[in-house]
Amino acid sequence: MGSDATAAACPWGIFAGLAAFALTVAISPAVASKTFTPKFAVTLLLGGAGLVPLVTSVRAQSRRERLAFCGAAGFLVVALVSTLISQAPNIGIFGLYGWGTGWLLWLGSAGAFAIGYRLDAVGRRWLFGGLVTGAIANSLLALYQTLAVPANSTFGPYQGNQADGFLGNPVFLESLLLGAIAIVSVRAAKTEVRSLEFGGWMAALALMSVALEFSDERAAVGLMAILVAGLVLVYRLKGLVVAVPAVVGYLVGYLSAGSSLGTRIAEGTSSVGFHQRLDLWRFAASALLHRPLLGFGPGELESATNPRMSLGFARTLQPGKLFADSHNLVIEVAVTTGILGLACFIAWVVPALLGARNLFVYFALMCFAVELVEPLNIAITPLAFLALGASVMPRSLPHPHSRRLAGPARACVAVLCAAAVLLGGEMIVGDAAFVRTPPRDYLLANSKTANSLLFYWPESSAALTEYYRYEAAVHHTKRAVRHYLELALQFSRETADRLPFDPLVWVSLGDSELALRRFSSATREYERALRADRWSAAAFDGLGQVSMEQHRFAAAERWYRRELQAAPPGPEQVAAAAHLRDARRGIVPQTGL
């Protein structure tokens, strides 16, 4: 290893370890997005710090490593082009709010891969410590969530019954713990049995396995079985000894918390979620045929799949809920970046996996395995690539620049990191303001602050729309009502500009037009919603309302029949049936905001 690379190795290791820990536990001062914007900020920092090493590592000495880095760089270029020509470039860059799986996620993942590749033995120890410490911290919180069941929205369990740690979703906790259990198991299998260190690894495995079961995610069962089988096959009796605390911990978790995991496993392929995934993958494959080369843009799966949903699929969805992720890493890459993007992605990942030479590859494999049936994540996906890069272990790091160019390269890293810190800080500040916007609280200044800082996401402008609709509803003079309705319409349009492929956004815009009795404009917006989702019950309802207001009862009856057909069982069907009865009787109901 060259002197220049050696000097930088330890700082890269410290940075990687701290970043790994921060991605697993960072929470926001804004309660509503406790697991999102801080982790996005760390991912941005990984991208800023790793971009120069990524580019310079294209000259790696190993042919396999050169192919991996060329694939990573090519993937970023293809994904960026796909973003710029997509329906919503802002979403293509940043991803959806709460998900963040746009181009910046892939930049952070590629940067993390390059940083992991640069680590020496000391740096890999830092990374191992960061991953395991983060997993243990999440395990302790998972135990607290399950056993104490706190009501606090920041640290309470997911949907009241599944532990999610600091990650906001039990699926992501499952990925982290499976990866950590894998690397700790391998580390323990290479440790002297009578040592204090071995006892510590056994305790850590037991703790993480209990927490893994508390996540109540069934994919972990199969992956844990594969891990145990691999330990016994490779390490024989010692592997069996290492597997014991993991298996016992998992069983203790199952027996102690009254888990519903057994029920979920018994459901198997008969569950609604399983069939929804299969249907979603079928819609995605159909969409890919229409834009095969560059796809629909990172983070924009909805623009590909929503127009192709079947009636049966639409009826299984909760009202207002759409799939923002394909729940399959390969399909997600193919649909959002096309065949070119998928080819580059394969050229990036496969050579890296084949060139892996240490235990970090098991962390990456576990995360990738979960992401074959679950969504990408702003924290877990970069961690998987950070571990994958660290698993490659080059025999000698490339000399990307002479001494004459070393200064400019460091300056570029510093500038990119500073830009990442500024953008990430802006996200957190804007998010802290957004949590105090309507409908949570009617603080107009916070609403406007969030809208100006988070101009690339539609949620803040949608909150302002709701604020002005509320003001219109509580005022009684025609002038004031019209004033606030015009403001609501302005922000409805802003929301539609930011998220043009979401049918509910166009429904909201149509509602604003309808409130102002602009029937032709409202009709146009509801029809836009139907182009985005041909089974949108809300759009059918809007078109029915327009027809009722114009006393076109036969047309209203047709729209309400379609709403009744598309609405999921429950209150939505009851409301649609009531509207249909009004249309048949020629009764125009009193509508309001």
Give the arrangement of secondary structure elements.
Elements: H1 3-25, H2 37-56, H3 63-84, H4 89-94, H5 103-117, H6 121-148, H7 170-189, H8 196-214, H9 219-256, H10 261-267, H11 272-288, H12 301-305, H13 311-316, H14 329-354, H15 360-370, H16 380-392, H17 403-434, H18 444-453, H19 459-474, H20 478-498, H21 503-515, H22 519-532, H23 537-549, H24 553-566, H25 571-585
Helix pairs in contact: 1-2, 1-6, 2-5, 2-17, 3-5, 3-14, 5-16, 6-7, 6-8, 7-8, 7-9, 7-15, 8-9, 11-14, 15-16, 17-18, 18-19, 19-20, 20-21, 21-22, 21-23, 22-23, 23-24, 24-25
Write a structural description.
This protein is mainly alpha-helical. The protein folds into two domains: 3-416, no CATH class; 440-585, Tetratricopeptide repeat domain (Serine Threonine Protein Phosphatase 5, Tetratricopeptide repeat). The protein is 72% helix and 0% strand. The protein is built from 25 helices and no strands. The protein is globular and about 85 Å long.
